[in-house]
Fold:
Amino acid sequence: MSRIKWFFWAVRNRLLHIMGYLTASWRADPDFLIIGAQKGGTSSLFYYLKFHPSVKRPIKKEIHFFNFHYDKGLKWYRAFFPLKSDSFITGEASPDYMFHPEAAKRAHQLSNEMKIIALLRNPIDRAYSAYQMNRRMGLDKHETFQDAINYELNAKVDHDHEYTYERHNFFYLERGKYAMLLDKWQKQFGKDQILVVQSESFFINTKKELFKIHQFLGLKPILPPTFRPMNVGKYSAMPNDLYKRLTQYFEEDLAVLKEKWNIEFAMQ
Structure:
């Protein structure tokens, strides 16, 4: 997107949000949340859902209310959503929600009936992709992925409560401990309200997985006009020895993920 287009897009969204704020009491709460994982295909799923006639999206994809903007209040949050109607459902996708320690509890306080969708990518590939994205954006100054994960492993944080800038941007491995992260959401919403989809399967068998998501959301199976994936990055492969070490790092969490959620990844 060019700077000029981005400027007009930002102005448009700002005006729509002001209008939404003034009419917040008539705005819908989300029926579903796409909570992650980061670099797992949330942008693609959100894009595909926009073509369904029974889905109305908010002003933008990532609102980040339950992690970054919770102090702005429900009126601010609801201003992003369409007016209430029984003719459609609405929801948002903020892939950091799954990782944030308070997001599940905050979402449940708004509505205990929301449906939760998690797209999970091989945690090693996901971590490496997130590092490459942060390098492109100039956020992560570590010269190598090994340096980046060394920083994470040596950092001292309260993993249950502390959520710092560094943890948000540079914690690549912890974000891939999916079983641990999903446990917080299951405690709030129950397993029947959570759909876990393997990202690799989502992109290989898109029609099948999208119909599964439609069924979960109570929608008729209507396909989008395109299955073009969104936000695909290109970068060199990870060294094999590092990949093998990380396979061992995630081994325990992946075993729990397979047992509880029937999700298994093909490792190198």
Observations:
- The beta strands are 32-36, 91-93, 115-120, 194-198.
- The chain has one domain: 3-261.
- The chain has a mean pLDDT of 93.
- The longest helix spans residues 240-261.
